[in-house]
Amino acid sequence: MTDSNIGGEASILEERRRKLEELRADNKAYINNFFPTKHALELHALHGHLSKEDLETAQIHNLALAGRIVLKRVMGNASFITIRDGSGDIQIYISKNNIDVDLYKNFKTWDLGDIIGTTGNLFKTKTEELTLEAHSIVLITKALRPMPEKHKGLADIETRYRQRYIDLMSNPDSKEIFVKRSNIVASVRQTMIEDGFLEVETPMMHSIPGGAVAKPFVTHHNALDRELFLRIAPELHLKRLLVGGFEKVFEINRSFRNEGLSTRHNPEFTMLEFYAAFATFGGTISFTTNLIQSASKAIGNGDRIEWDGDQIDLSSFTTKTLSELVLAENTALGRQDLSNLEKLRAHAASIKLSFKDSWGPGKLLLEIFEKTVESKLIQPTFVIEYPVEVSPLSRRNNEDPSIADRFELFVGGKEIANGFCELNDPDDQAERFKEQVQAKADGDDEAMGYDEDYVAALEHGMPPAVGVGVGIDRLVMMLTNQSSIRDVILFPQLKS
């Protein structure tokens, strides 16, 4: 911000404070006894289609509206303003023929950003714009700081994220994204409940980090004098509920991962996780497809959407194995090479993929997939047959124990969901936890800890089940055509 802008804003602030003090002196500052009876969008929906003559005949009178002044055209004896309420914008006509002359004079000094209340009758102007003819007006809240300039808008993207309230008050498109987000989450919840799932809540502070491979946030509980971890996933607690007898559970949860910031990642994010006992792998893929299609329809999308420049067909989801996708993009590899550690290391080096000596063939194969394949999966694709080595909580496949009954869904080159048949063999789970502990000892900050209580829970017997995690933030990005996760999170984490 230039010195002139700083000086200009200081001058505006000083002038508006002077006006506020006058309101305080008259006991008219920050009033709370005006109550709107209608909203702008409601009036447009009910009466916007009527002609000027039909609206006069209908006599829509004695309406009360409240909102922020976002546009003001002051003339001699009459003026037009546009106010914005929680639903949208509507024009107000104010004339000194309809209100007190002194009040009209005071109104002329009101500023953009002020929140006002008005009552009056509905009509249409000569240009057929739906308008409220004000018979009374009142200044409810004095805005001390100016709104962004109408034509320039809120151009500074950093300010949009750091002061989201300014973004929302001045940018209807931004506000609409978050309305759609709410509708998407509502659709997801409705789909789950209609299918017989029970919504539950599980702890956000864990004694052991688990449920996903990620670096946790660490905190300290003073009264217990113990270290706790913000959850990286609710998975292990939700599966304890399957042991307890619930057969279908879900949670729309906040999770935390101590990772970098990017257009795809925020350290605090929202996930849907659900678990269904006795479900089939293929049936769960179909259910996840329906969940996403229903959420898209809930915000008015058709079968084809655009995301980040790509045209995506949500009516068609395909299934591919991880191996066939890697082989198609890495022709130097043969099928027999996919389990050969030395061949995979040589290929990784040839494509400039750095790796650790502790990585086995499964981990290398996954890294090669992420580097060479993932970004090219534009159309909705379920990738199946992941190596067990990178699936510490997944059940082994009956025919090939080296792979897990696991899928990940990719759309637009980005992961949207992760699901698998749950590992319910306590001895196998204990061994995989030990491998995670060893990986952590070898320097892997994202490896899980050994959850003794969870193993004990499995020893009581968990029914066969399938579980899925869906990234709500990325789902909203996809369905609203946003390229940055910061545009779908109201208050994203930012650098200082």
From TrEMBL:
It is found in: Cytoplasm. Its cofactor is Mg(2+). It comes from the Bacteria. GO terms for biological process: lysyl-tRNA aminoacylation. Mg(2+) 1 binds at E408, E415. Residues 181-492 form the Aminoacyl-transfer RNA synthetases class-II family profile domain. Its EC number is 6.1.1.6. It is an enzyme of class 6 (ligase). Mg(2+) 2 binds at E415. One of its GO terms (cellular component) is cytosol. HAMAP family: Lys_tRNA_synth_class2. This is Lysine--tRNA ligase. It comes from SAR86 cluster bacterium BACL1 MAG-120920-bin57. The gene is lysS.
